[in-house]
Amino acid sequence: MSESHRWRVKPGSKVDLSDIDTRDPAGAPGDKDATVAASAALMDRLRVLQERLYAEDRRSVLVVLQAMDAGGKDGTVKHVFTGVNPAGVSVSSFKAPSHKELAHDFLWRVHLRVPERGQIGVFNRSHYEDVLVVRVDGLAPESVWRPRYEAIADFERNLAREGTTIVKFFLHISKEEQAERLQARLDDPEKHWKFNPADLEARDQWDDYQDAYAEAIERTSTDDAPWFVVPADRKWYRNWVVSTVLVETLERLDPRFPDPPEGLDGFTIE
Ligand code: ATP
Ligand code: MG
């Protein structure tokens, strides 16, 4: 049995985020040190698998990261992809849309960044913002954002059929953990740049965001594009979970080096 099922949201199941402990260490190979060591081994494995995916050049993997502010999206990218050949990975961060982006449908800017064959694409925020911040801040009426659940499921189904394997992570932190991390951004001069006063407004809307996340996850966790809810208060556990799911996903894909061209056997360069 895979480890991933532990955090995977079964299609059609109800999601109650308040029921999922943000410090649950379930499945961890041991204490912090043991888990960090296990993550290092997984990162090595990921490097090998990614090289094969790149060489095979037929399929791609899309990793979606969503979280409340200071939820650890950047830290996850930094840790999990350490050591992976940068030529095979693209990271896209989605901020508030520009005028040009707003002049298109909400999936336009996202589709442009979907990884090409052979690549792993990481989305730091994503098309899910269009049913999260847009809903909570009332940036569009419900008649606009509600149909997007279906549009997203259709979009992801199409990508899956065309050869993109999708895994989506919600890094689940507690409100207390967020307070500590935001405070650290205020207290540490080297973290000031990460502080955005708008984060405090989103924090005031915590419960609305949790509801919006729960509904988005519930409505869009599919076999083609499952959601994983990661207890993320402890960074070392979060990194291990994400690495575990990615390695299991790639092992299942089992990318292979392509067959060599004919006639290479015994060929000597003179
Ligand atoms: P951190 O987690 O470290 O705070 P971040 O991902 O919040 O990093 P920021 O530059 O602080 O990065 O914020 C990006 C902002 O863009 C978020 O507030 C997010 O809600 C907003 N955003 C992203 N997509 C959309 C969208 N489609 N419509 C409106 N706002 C969006
Ligand atoms: Mg922010």
Layout of SSEs?
Blueprint: H1 32-56, E1 60-67, H2 73-80, E2 89-93, H3 99-102, H4 108-112, E3 120-124, H5 133-136, H6 142-145, H7 148-161, E4 164-172, H8 175-187, H9 198-204, H10 206-220, E5 227-231, H11 235-253
Parallel strand pairs: 1-3, 1-4, 2-3, 4-5
Helix pairs in contact: 1-11, 2-11
The structure holds adenosine-5'-triphosphate and magnesium ion.
The site of magnesium ion has 3 residues, from loops.
Please, could you describe this protein's structure?
The chain is α/β, with parallel strands linked by helices. It has one domain: P-loop containing nucleotide triphosphate hydrolases (Rossmann fold). Helices cover 44% and strands 12% of the residues. A 5-stranded parallel β-sheet has the order 2-3-1-4-5, with helices on both faces. Helix 1 packs parallel to helix 11 and helix 2 crosses helix 11. The site of adenosine-5'-triphosphate (ATP) has 19 residues, from helix 2, helix 5 and helix 9. Magnesium ion binds next to loops.
CATH topology: Rossmann fold
- CATH homologous superfamily title: P-loop containing nucleotide triphosphate hydrolases
**What is the residue-averaged pLDDT?**
96
Structural class: alpha/beta
Structure summary, number of beta strands: 5
Low-confidence stretches: none
Shape: globular
| Multimeric status of the protein | single chain
Q: How many angstroms does the end-to-end distance come to?
A: 51 Å
How many domains, in number, for the residues? 1
Helix content: 40-55%
Main sheet strand line-up: 2-3-1-4-5
One letter per element, helices H and strands E, the order comes to HEHEHHEHHHEHHHEH
- Evaluate the radius of gyration: 20 Å
Largest sheet descriptor: 5 strands, parallel
Number of helices: 11
CATH architecture: 3-Layer(aba) Sandwich
- CATH class reads Alpha Beta
Sheet-strand content, in percent, reads 5-15%
Bound molecules: adenosine-5'-triphosphate, magnesium ion
